[in-house]
Specification:
Residues 1-107 form the Response regulatory domain. This protein is an alpha/beta fold. It has helices at 3-13, 24-33, 50-59, 75-84, 96-110, 143-154, 162-170, 179-195, 223-230, and strands at 39-42, 66-70, 88-91, 117-120, 123-126, 131-134, 137-138, 201-204, 208-211.
Length: 237
């Protein structure tokens, strides 16, 4: 697997939906025509330097945050990247967890979350300590339940497929059946409901789940579908 493929796999394992291309011209076209949350850009491309990609998309008034990856460690390289419009610069070799952390930090800032504590109504989630509170009372979640809730909060308002959750939880390795996501969601909903923060997680039937603001109109669920979720407790998480 090449460098582009490895980076794409890191991002997919962290729960991101990824498009990737190998050439600068292709990257420019993708960024100009699609509304991405974030771009991760290699500095050395086969047809141009990453600096030129950043310069041209910024000239086209594309505001998508961009992280530049490069083996160049000299300060001048970083200064040039920032001067043409990059949002971050990560030197290779890098740790996969650091890349994901930087991506999440930029996404938080771009979506108005400058602090590591995220609030949705009465729900408070601390990205640093991985603690969850509702009205300042702690909610005890398993590691998998927390990971699902964190992904939902960071992608608030976006529909997340079960595949995205599986990638986030298992990274493509030893993945269980897809129905396990319904089990985790069911248990997570019950814990949030018991704590006083129910109806945050909406089922988008045939597509996946999303987290909405408390005052946002919930999705429509039939009695049969609600009953199906309620019966998921028979499965082991």
């Amino acid at each position: 697997m090449g460098a582009v493929g490895e980076i794409a796999q890191i991002m997919k394992s962290a729960g991101f939906t990824v498009d990737h291309v190998a050439a600068g011209e292709e990257a420019i076209e993708m960024l100009r025509h699609y509304d991405y949350d974030l771009a991760v850009l290699e500095l050395m491309l086969r047809d141009m330097e990453g600096y030129e990609v950043v310069r041209r998309v910024r000239a086209a008034r594309v505001t998508t945050p961009i992280i530049v990856l490069s083996s160049l460690t000299r300060p001048q390289a970083k200064v040039k990247a920032f001067s043409v419009g990059a949002d971050d610069y990560l030197t290779k070799p890098f740790d996969a967890d650091e890349l994901v952390a930087r991506m999440q930090a930029i996404l938080r800032r771009s979506k108005g979350f400058s602090e590591p504590t995220l609030r949705i109504g009465s729900l408070c989630l601390s990205l640093d300590s991985r603690e969850v509170k509702v009205d300042e009372a702690p909610v005890h979640l398993t590691g998998k339940e927390y990971a699902i809730l964190e992904l939902l909060v960071l992608r608030k308002g976006m529909v997340l497929t079960k595949d995205a959750f599986l990638n986030h939880l298992y990274g493509g390795m030893d993945e269980p059946e897809m129905k396990i996501i319904d089990v985790f969601i069911c248990k997570l909903r019950k814990k949030l409901q018991a704590a006083g923060a129910g109806n945050l997680i909406t089922t988008v039937w045939g597509r996946g789940y999303m987290l909405r603001e408390p005052n946002q109109r919930p999705g429509v669920e039939t009695a049969e579908q609600v009953s199906e979720l309620a019966n998921l407790d028979q499965f082991a998480a």
